[in-house]
Every structure is written in C-alpha cells, then in structure tokens.
Fold this protein.
Amino acid sequence: MTILFCSDSEPPGPWRLACARAFPRMAFRTWPDTGARDEIRYALVWQQPPGSLAGLPNLKAILVLGAGVDAVLSDAALPADVPVLRLVDAGLPGPMAEYALYAVLHFQRRMADYFQQQRAALWRRREEMLARQWRVGVMGLGVIGATVARRIAAQGFPVAGWSRSGKSVEGVEVHAGTAGLDPFLARSRVLVNVLPLTSQTRGILGGRTFAAMPRGGYVVNIGRGAHVVDADLIAALDSGQLAGAMLDVFEQEPLPVAHPFWRHPAIIVTPHVAAPTLASESESQVVENIRRLERGEPPLGVVDRDRGY
Amino acid sequence: MTILFCSDSEPPGPWRLACARAFPRMAFRTWPDTGARDEIRYALVWQQPPGSLAGLPNLKAILVLGAGVDAVLSDAALPADVPVLRLVDAGLPGPMAEYALYAVLHFQRRMADYFQQQRAALWRRREEMLARQWRVGVMGLGVIGATVARRIAAQGFPVAGWSRSGKSVEGVEVHAGTAGLDPFLARSRVLVNVLPLTSQTRGILGGRTFAAMPRGGYVVNIGRGAHVVDADLIAALDSGQLAGAMLDVFEQEPLPVAHPFWRHPAIIVTPHVAAPTLASESESQVVENIRRLERGEPPLGVVDRDRGY
C-alpha cells in the first residue's frame, strides 16, 4: 500500500516524515517515482503536474495539502470518481485573520502615510477614524472567512460578511447571494476576499464590484489571484474610487517582475504568505483523513466538484 | 462661575462647545484671558504653561484632558490642595490596543521585510512564526494596559503583563513588582510599554531591560518618551539584542528633525497618534466629572500625586 506525494512546488520531506510516523507500514513515494501504480491508495497533492493522477486503479482519495482546490480541479486528467479532500482548518484561519487584520489596521491607522513621513522626518498627525467608523466586509464565510470576520469584529470594527448561502456568523451582519452583494459592497469601506475560486467568483474583484463600494475604499485579497481583474484594480486606484489594496495572491506566482502591481504606490504586494498552507498544522488533518478512510469512516473536507470547493 | 481652558498645545474650540452645551450658565475662558480669577472654579489643562494655575482661590478641580498627568504634575506652581483628575478611559484603550496590535503583527509577520522586498520586486517568503510562538509582554496593567493585553491575547499571542501591584487580567499571565520584572522580560519577545511616567518608571526602557529580554526582541512604546533611554535603545538595536522598535512618544515632541530615531532602519516613528487623546470621546468624561463636583459627588480618575498617576 502506497501514499503518493504529487507536487511541483512543495517539498515532500515533512510529509514523508508525518506519514512514516502515522502509517509505518505504508510506502511513501514521490511522483514521478510511483513504483507499482496499483499499489497507490492515497495521493497527497498540491499543484500536481497535470495528468499525474491518471492511471491509478486503486486510488481511494486525493488529499489536497491546502484549502484552495482550484488548481487541483483544473487538471483535465483528474480521476472523476475519486473523492477530493481539502483542508478545512489546519491552522489556516488564524494566520489568515492576522493578515487581514493587519491590512485593515494599516489602512485605518494611516500607517502608509506615517511610514512615508518618517522618510522625510516629518511630524504630522493625519486625521484618523475610530474602528467603529470603519466598516469591513468579508467575502466568503467558510471556516476561514468566519474566523477572519470574527477576529476583525473583536477589535471593534463593524463587520459584514457575504457568501453564496448566507450562513450566519456571531457578531457579523450577513448578506447572501447575488441580491445581497450590492448592499454588502455599498457599506464596506474595506473589502477582504477569502472566497474559493470558482467559475462564479473568478474576476469578482473587478470594476463593477469596486464601483459599488464607497469611494476611497480598500481591497484585501487573500483568496486567489484570479479573483482580481488586474487592470480594473489599477484603474479603480488611479481614479480614486479605491484608495489602496493589499494583495497576497496573484494569477501568476511568483508575480512577474514587470507586473505593475509591484510598483503601484497604492498597492502592497506580499509573496503568498497570509497563511503557511503547508505547515505542520495541516499534517494532523491529512493523517486523520487517511485513518478515517482506512477504518471505512467518512472523511472530512470532501470537495463538491460542481460547486468547486 | 468660570471654566478656564489652559493649554499651549491643544485648540480650545471643541471644549468650548462641549462646555457651552453641558453648562450653559458657566463662562468659558482661555488662559491667559482669565477674567476675574476668583470666579474660576474648574481648569481644563493639557501641557499648561507653568504657573498658570497659581492664584486661583476658588479652583475646585484640575481636569486633565488626557490619561498621562506627568506634564501637569511637573508644574512647580500647581496648587497643592486641589484635586487633579485624569481621563480613565475616554476611548483611549481601544485605539491604544489597535496600535500595539498593529506593531506586534508588523513584527511577527515580517512586514518590514516584505515592504522592502516590494521595492525590489522581490518574491521571497520569509520564515514565519505562529502567533502562539510569539510571546508579548505588556508593561502597565491599568485600564489601557489591560485592554491592550486582552486584545493582543485574543489574536492568539501568549501575553504576560507586568505592573507594580500585579492586578489580574483574564487570559494574561501577570508578573508584579521589582521581583517580577526579570522573569517577565525574559519571556517577552515583544515588549509593549503603557506605563505611567513616574520617578520609578522613567528610563525603564533602557539597557538593563533590553539585556533581560530574549535576543532579537522588539519594543513598542506608547507610554511616554521619557520611559526610553534613547542611546540605550539605539545601542541595543545596533548590537542585535533588539531587532526593532515602534515608537509613538518621545521626550521632545515633535521629535527633532536631527534625532537619530527618524533615520534608524529598525525604528518606526509615528507622531503621537496611538490614541486621539483629546477626541470627542473624552468630553463626556470631563463633563461628567464637573457634574459630579457640582452635585457634591466624588469625581472619577483622582490622581495620587505621590504615586504620580
């Protein structure tokens, strides 16, 4: 019985160690060194080489080593009848909330102005607004989005959330579906995106959305790069409709050196660090899922392929 | 009956308005235009000109328009037998906590590195630590310090507090007095100072304190400038004992253009903006105290002049 590690971008070492500890009698192999293909029962994947999961007759589950599954699902050769499991927590929500909260505080407290003033040894207080005057909207209310919303609300910011189904989160004003989007945007001075990437959400951070926000708003993207229409974001910043953006994810990563985001004065670029997606925190969840499958129990985080998350 | 406004650095306008609304039958005068000195019953003060409160025979209370009273008490001509009242909340704790939390997140999430990398269009993930591995120490556990400690703890950081008396704060490990200082410092990777300035705390952010912290620590000062021994801070940063500092208060404000803090690469300077000390939030508390005194009730925030806060 074999666990196959399948990633072009992540090191297998920590996972080999975790699996050896938890499943000492299973083999651990790294694609393309698959060994006997009919021995492979579980695949641990992150940005797998397209086609690498085809032709594995006894594959029982595809365990994604992160919360976002859009890259995994985009593989045309992905076996259709094998369940895809994603991380549902694994230590992601806390760091994501930290990043979002940092961005909100950075904008609300005018920190970019103060950093710039320091370079000129300039002592000047900027007009500030209290947290309660600074309304934040969180798009996406899964485990991550709910934590992001609650943590920002805990600092005194009025927080609303928006999702397809409109699930409720304590202390957060919830808007749902297509009809709920415009009222949600109209009240959100800072928009924090943690949506999954699906055909419905691709490009959602575009001109129409920015125009529905209050003038001078801010955008924080910790979802996926393809949520953003890059040219629309730059246009909204240049026109003053948006005042700033903090972006952690990009359609192409690493963000190409020539991309205008790097040098735009109102954009903060970070290199996909909002959450350490593959940290040791996620190991226990992957191990737990393999254990459940071995015992014949239902696994956690089963992805609905049609919905896309 | 007259209220005298006495400040070299703050505009009287908002206070004149608040007093006219709350006490329409009292006169409002601005030093040095005192009118009949025996009419003056209340003095609203912030960095008053030394001697300006002498010779007011019917002064019933000195109402300080902030939480820190060190500047007021340093006036040798301050009437000895008139109670000094300070703001005990007035919306200060929330903004102070925001500032401190921003500083902690900025250091923990390596944001200075990412800002610098962006200038070079450099995509490189820095090693990060989880909040729970990043221990924060808050010096001073009054209303402000307790809020700062609780708000940082709410984001998953292990927080300890230190104060003279060691009052307890939920979810915060408390150390007390001289004996408790070294164990407190030894565990604190980030030190947040919100102490009042007294003869005991002056210079407390000096070489001895920095040396007792873990190597590579951080200092956040939102107390008073005179808590910091400037040369010791620079020496600790230059030796690597400290890795960074975020400072909002300075012995001389505005911080002189030639001061080395402005240009030190590991120091963030902000122009005393951690809390809007004189915001409308504080008006209701000053008004409430005058009302209490007019009704013969005990006021709030009575300063112990010997203790210094």
